[in-house]
Protein 1
Amino acid sequence: MTQVKLPEWGKSKAQILKMMREFSGQDADWRGGKTWSLVYHANEETLELAKEAYLMFFSENGLNPMAFPSLKKFETEVIAMTAAMLGGPEAVGNMTTGGTESIMLAVKAARDWAREKKPGATAPEMILPLTAHPSFEKAGHYFGVKSVHIPVTPDFRADPQAARKALTNNTIMIAGSAVCYPYGVIDPIPELAALALENKLWFHTDACLGGFMLPFLKKLGRKIIPFDFSVPGVCSISADIHKYGYGPKGASTVTYRNSELRKRQFYVYADWPGGVYASPTMTGTRAGGALAASWAVLNFLGEDGYLKLADQAMNLTAKLIDGINAIPGLKVMGRPDMSVFAFSSDTLNMFELGELMEKKGWHLDRQQMPPALHLIVTPHHARMVEPFLSDLRSAAAELSKKGKSDASGMAAIYGMIGTIPDRKAAAQFVLAFLDDLFKVK
Ligand SMILES: Cc1ncc(COP(=O)(O)O)c(C=O)c1O
């Protein structure tokens, strides 16, 4: 294994920046608009403002809001704006480092709430649609809450009947997505939350993806299944600023219907010689830059800006969906509620197609069960709709000429992982891969 040590003598700033620029040459080309995941870009002005605001508060630490009243102002105002947007002007919450942390905090709060309200639930369980984000699984793994999966109906939305059947004396929580990552559809939140309310359970809406899109789509006149605090029974909502909020990486929100529910999120240790330790979220030190840049972006874009961006993303999505459905052999899965969707095929090997597109410079996430390719559309993709469709058309034609053949390279690996019947073995395979990935080469 290659050994990398701290250099004996520091290098110059110019040298370091030059090296870093070179390294970035290997990265997914999101600036060129060829990346369909991981980066949410509105426009240059928004990005530049976010960077400037981030740098202005680069060193400040959000752990102690008393030391930095500016950060407290940013965080509480970002949460107030988010809560009002999500139909809960009275709701409270905190900023976190991302969707995963927001979801983990909500699961932890629900667990601790249930310990008081439902002491009979000695082995707590949460009911999750199959399409719920894996961060719920991670939360369950960390906090000892077992996930109980329910299937989705043919439109890829959670099945409320199945949720009812999955209830046990140990159920403490039900969750739904608005929208789910794999297919971009909103679960039937009103039915699921009503079931939670009827059974005195916590309900969480995961609006990490849709939180900063759906409220604007509704204002633009689109029919949106209610998902926010306007729905009785919704206790908490996660909504990410670093996705369609177009903020800096490391910025999400978790909001609760009231302070009584949020109380279980906080952590306080009063007996430490270092002082009384009070931490609102999972991390200790909190990057002031992320709080500041989020506040800056929300105020810069305003409702008007978000409405325009949401409209643009939806227009591009409609063109992409029509274009993909017109390619022989390809079909968009379900009817996406926003600018996130997957497409699949009955005849073509989707992983081979992903590889062919990769060779043409496009970065698309792969899905499994069934194999599919996934797109997250932002206004930044405007120039790329036609080039993308044209490359996809030729890649699909090339593949169908070749006929069904065994996949090779990465396509074979994706296919193999998706079809290993023993899912624990599949996870073991990926664990070994991760171990190798995070080594210096
Ligand atoms: C629906 C949904 N929930 C949660 C998450 C987790 O967010 P993060 O990657 O910011 O932790 C994602 C990420 O894509 C998501 O799409």
Note: The pocket of pyridoxal-5'-phosphate is lined by residues 98-100, 103, 133, 135, 177, 180-181, 206, 208-209, 240, 252 (CB under 6 Å).
Protein 2
Amino acid sequence: MVPRGTELVPSTWDRRDPLGEQDLEVVPFLVHRYPDRALLLATDRCASYCRFCTRKRWVGQGPAPGPDELDAALAYVAQHQGIREVIVSGGDALMLADDKLEAMLARLRDIAHLDVVRLATRMLTFAPTRVTRELLAVLRAHLDVPGAPALYLLSHFNHPRELAPAARAAIGALVDAGVPVLNQTVLLRGINDDRATLVELLRALTRLRARPYYLHQCDLAAGTEAFRVALDDAQALYGSLRGELSGLSIPTFVIDVPGGLGKVSMGPDVVVREEDDAVVLRGFRGGTARYPKR
Ligand code: SF4
């Protein structure tokens, strides 16, 4: 959260909009990149602001979407039957007041082709007391409506020290209320780019029932070069988690390909070589074995 002078040093890789979202904004505040998903930028506000934020060009600075723009965004989703999932983000979805969130969920329920609504929030880290009885009642009321889209909460924890007692309680309350929690983590140089820290974080999240979902290589947002881990080091670190952690605790390591080309998984290269009828695979202890191609 604390600004550093290094952010002012320009890098040749810097991009104002690393994910090319502005080109994919089909109507204001709605990004439609993948055929079956749409990203609703429901607010530009967060409870605190991460220096490495991929949307720092806009987050915390406005303009915020007004009711007419949200209407237009939801109308677009309603008109496109291929969209099965809406990710309510920003900014932070839980910056919406309970009544606004309730109204948004009701509007999304009216769109019959939606299977999933995801609420993306870092509030469990910054302000876990946001998970009040009233908020849980809003979420539970949505889940109680027959045929309502499944609701997932996408949390964002980067370090075990962010899992304060109140954060742990908030995760537990959400899961107990029937809202599955998935977690995303951004790999940050000097903060969580060591095996012990990541293992502690991923184990703790799993124990708390917040399933580790994505480990992100830090995007190329302007001023974030000092946060980025060299790609070789990042892949080696990710590879070292295999064997140490069960599959339940290992998120998918991804890079969002610049220019709006979407996420790609950057797991360790386990194929040592290809033969005519087999591939030679390397296991987590370094041993190799052939596996048939068909
Ligand atoms: S909470 Fe999310 S949207 Fe807000 S500043 Fe941090 S990374 Fe960006």
Note: The pocket of iron/sulfur cluster is lined by residues 46, 49-50, 53, 55, 59, 90-92, 122 (CB under 6 Å).
